Every structure is written in structure tokens, then in C-alpha cells.
């Protein structure tokens, strides 16, 4: 159901979230308009993700429940897992620089892909439309 190419369409509280993550204002301004596109290919419990934005293009492979490393667009390194809970993907990632936890979910709401983020008490969302 997540399969397809999704384009970031709008953000909710994303600036505050990035600020909590410690990202400076210049990078936050760029990140608000990063033209993020995510292509998701799920086969059973394996996912292949193609990420493309004004910052970079990146391929990511993971298996549900299996720990993997990922580097955020600003260079922050995290390690964690995605798991499926009903129809929702739930991710829990730990920053390597400070051991703090970033949680994230992906779910489909009215045909849009909603990705939520939480870090240290601040929630945000990015909402993607299918291409
Ligand atoms: C993926 O499934 O796309 C790869 C793994 C994602 C890991 C966590 C994503 C959190 C992204 C937060 C970006 C905010 C920058 C401050």
C-alpha cells in the first residue's frame, strides 16, 4: 500500500522539530523546501527506498524489525528499526551523537502518505502526495 513515489506537499511544525534537533536556521529554511521525493518498494517485510531532495539522492534498504544505520540530510547519524503496527509503519531511531531517540511513523490518510516525527517532545508531520 505504501508502494509508489511520494512528493512532500506540506509540513506541520517541521521548523520547530528541526530546531529541537539542533539544526540551524539556514539549513531549516532550505529543508522546508527540499522537494523531497520518496519512492517506496515493499516486498514482504523488505523495503527499498529511494530518497531524492535538493540535498541529495540516496538508496536505503531495510527489513522490518532489523536494525540499520541511516544518515539524515544534515549529516546526523542514527540507528534503529521500522516495524509494522497494523497499517502503520513505526520507526524508532537513536542518534549516535547523543543517544536521544527520534520516533517516526508512516501511514496512509485519505490517499496521502503522512509521516510523523517526534524528537524530545516536539511533534511534526510531512504530508506527501502520490505522483
Ligand atoms: C527511510 O525509511 O526513509 C529511511 C529511514 C528513516 C529514518 C528516520 C527518518 C527521520 C528523518 C528526520 C528528518 C529530519 C531532519 C531533522
Q: TL;DR of this structure?
A:
The protein has two helices and ten strands; from the N terminus they run E-H-H-E-E-E-E-E-E-E-E-E. It has helices at residues 14-20, 25-32; strands at residues 4-12, 37-43, 46-52, 57-63, 68-71, 77-85, 88-95, 101-109, 112-119, 122-130.
Quick one: biggest sheet? 10 strands, antiparallel
- SS element count, helices: 2
| C-alpha-based Rg, rounded | 14 Å
- The proportion of residues in beta strands is over 45%
Overall geometry: globular
Number of strands: 10
Class derived from helix and strand content = mainly beta
Description of the molecule:
11% of the residues lie in helices and 59% in strands. The longest helix is centred in the N-terminal third of the chain and has 8 residues, at 25-32. By secondary structure, it is mostly beta strands. The chain starts with a strand and ends with a strand. The chain is globular and about 40 Å long. The protein has a 10-stranded antiparallel sheet. The mean pLDDT is 98. It has helices at residues 14-20, 25-32, and strands at 4-12, 37-43, 46-52, 57-63, 68-71, 77-85, 88-95, 101-109, 112-119, 122-130. Residues 18, 21, 23, 49, 51, 60, 70, 72, 91, 93, 102, 104, 117 line the site of myristic acid.
